[in-house]
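Structure in, sequence out. Go:
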């Protein structure tokens, strides 16, 4: 049965082309992955990092209880998971640590572990599991292990021109505008050394010009992302776990001194979400000096209860994830005093195992200069401004689920300079 026909399941689309829109397609994928995982398990033992995750869950009474109940709750609700217990889930997780995503424009499955965990994540017993610090710490090790595979040559299975799953097939080239990127088409795998090398591909010179680089009033987009939300008058502490998901500065800027976070109270937040098919490097929205740059450990698959039983609950929890998910935080002191301090927060959702910072404290960055990048996974980001800095944002509500990404380095906002 399709998820849109189930009671209490809303017919809403997923954001960013990371996973298929129809639940039946997702269920078919879970069954296929489960079959392949069980076949692989006949001859291959669990990787150490997956064994350690399994041992953590089985050795912690509360974790084991909650994850077992979350699986049971999802199955009783009628969802097809591809597994019926923790051991079967761990077999699938292990299989996915050597999984290279194929291209599929119509039925994208770019975050397969998210798809496997979809329903237990949003069951009553699942919320506690995916917020548990020890569980997330070990899950980070699993995702880092997978990231190692995706950074190696064996991950290039689908870096071919062969349709339908090749990332260089004609349809893929059209969908992702691959002419915009640096590559060596005469070389094997177009010169990319790994899947992550392709995922973090660089733009050709001039492909994304910086809008008015010498005009400090023009703030540019830091990521190639579709608009998700604009919020005004943000607070130092707020109830980020409720349906409205207000931005809570002290939580978002964890690791920053309270006195610095207080500078943003009453200010503006812009948030955008990235697509699986787009550019994944971050660029400076203003010219200035990097004052802080650090990573925050956090959750990977936690969503808020207010979204209910919904396959896109993680997508719709994007405001909440800025306060709880693994992320990179960068604070830039603008060259233009009227802009003050700007916070850039790059959030790793789902299969993101690393947010890589390349511009470090003390370094000056020009507007449009690279700050860092996401390695493989679903992602969202926000820019936070001090009060009375923003005159207007270019994206205007309502923000549609099918909105095209705003190009990186293009105009995002005008400042009151």
């Amino acid at each position: 049965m399709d998820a849109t026909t189930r009671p209490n399941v809303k017919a809403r689309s997923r954001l960013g082309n990371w996973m298929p829109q129809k639940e039946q397609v997702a269920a078919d994928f879970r069954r296929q992955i489960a079959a392949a995982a069980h076949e692989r398990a006949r001859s291959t033992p669990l990787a150490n990092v997956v064994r350690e995750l399994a041992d953590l869950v089985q050795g912690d009474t509360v974790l084991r209880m909650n994850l077992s109940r979350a699986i049971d709750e999802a199955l009783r609700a009628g969802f097809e998971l591809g597994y019926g217990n923790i051991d079967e889930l761990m077999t699938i997780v292990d299989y996915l640590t050597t999984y290279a995503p194929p291209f599929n424009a119509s039925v994208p499955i770019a975050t397969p572990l998210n798809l496997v965990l979809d329903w237990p994540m949003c069951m009553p017993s699942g919320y506690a599991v995916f917020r548990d610090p020890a569980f997330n710490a070990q899950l980070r090790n699993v995702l880092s292990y997978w990231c190692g595979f995706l950074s190696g040559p064996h991950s290039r299975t689908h870096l071919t021109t062969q349709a339908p799953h090749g990332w260089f097939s004609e349809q893929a080239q059209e969908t992702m505008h691959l002419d915009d990127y640096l590559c060596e088409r005469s070389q094997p795998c177009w010169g990319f050394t790994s899947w992550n090398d392709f995922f973090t591909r660089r733009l050709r010179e001039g492909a994304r010009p910086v809008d008015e680089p010498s005009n400090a009033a023009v703030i540019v987009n830091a990521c190639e992302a579709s608009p998700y939300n604009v919020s005004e008058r943000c607070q130092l502490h707020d109830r980020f776990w409720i349906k409205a998901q207000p931005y809570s500065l002290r939580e978002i800027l964890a690791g920053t001194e309270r006195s610095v976070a207080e500078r943003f109270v009453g200010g503006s937040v812009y948030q955008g979400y990235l697509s699986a098919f787009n550019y994944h490097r971050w660029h400076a929205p203003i010219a200035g000096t990097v004052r802080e740059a650090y990573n925050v450990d956090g959750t990977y698959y936690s969503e808020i209860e207010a979204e209910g039983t919904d396959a896109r609950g993680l997508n719709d929890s994007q405001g909440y994830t800025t306060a709880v998910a693994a992320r990179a935080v960068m604070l830039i002191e603008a060259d233009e005093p009227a802009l003050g301090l700007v916070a850039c927060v790059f959030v790793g959702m789902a299969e993101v195992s690393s947010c890589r910072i390349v511009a470090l404290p003390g370094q000056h960055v020009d507007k449009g200069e690279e700050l860092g990048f996401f390695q493989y996974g679903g992602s969202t980001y926000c820019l936070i401004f001090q009060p009375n800095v923003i005159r207007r944002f270019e994206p205007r509500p309502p923000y549609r689920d099918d909105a095209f990404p705003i190009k990186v380095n293009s105009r995002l906002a005008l400042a009151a300079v």
